[in-house]
Amino acid sequence: MASTSDIRNGLCIRYNHDIFKIIEFLHVKPGKGPAFVRTKLKSVTTGKVIDNTFSAGHKLEDVRVETHKFQYLYNEGETYHFMNTDDYSQIALQKATLDSPDLMKEGEVVTVLINAEDGLPLSVEMPANVILEVTHTEPGVKGNTATNATKPATVETGAIVNVPLFINEGDKIKVETDKGTYKERIKE
Q: Which residues form the Elongation factor P C-terminal domain (predicted)?
C-alpha cells in the first residue's frame, strides 16, 4: 500500500477496478481546510485520462511494475509490435496503451512497464525527446518574424509539429514527446 506522499509521475495504482498510471500531480495545501493531491490518471487498459483528487494520507493500492527496454519494430493498423532488447522476444500492444505513437519511428527504443504479478505489459514510455526529419513544410515568409511565428511541419512518422519559420524540409528537429512540441533544430 502507498499513500498520497508516495505519488509521483509514472506510479501505477489500482483504482476503480482498473490500473491507472499517474501522469501529472500537484500537492495542494490550502490556507483553510485539509491538504489534498490533485492528479491526472491515465488508464493503462483504455488510454482514457481522468482527473481525480485524493485527500492527504489517502491509502492507494500500488501495482508493482518492472521496466524493460523494447525496440519498436512496426505497426499493423492499431497494433504495434515491439522486441525485447535482452532476449529478443516480441510483444504486440494496442495503440491506446502508447503515450505518443505518432512520434515513434521504427527502431526507437522505448521502456515498457510490465505488471510484476501477471507479466502483462501495462504501458509504453517514450524517451523524453526524439529526433525526427521534417518531410513537408511550407517555406517561411521573409519579414514575418516579429513574434514567435510558427508553421505546421510534417515529420517522417506522419505527425504534425508546429515549428519556427526557419525550419525547412530535410531538417532534423528534436521533439519533446510528452507535449509533442518542437524543442530545437539538430545540426549535422
A: 130-185
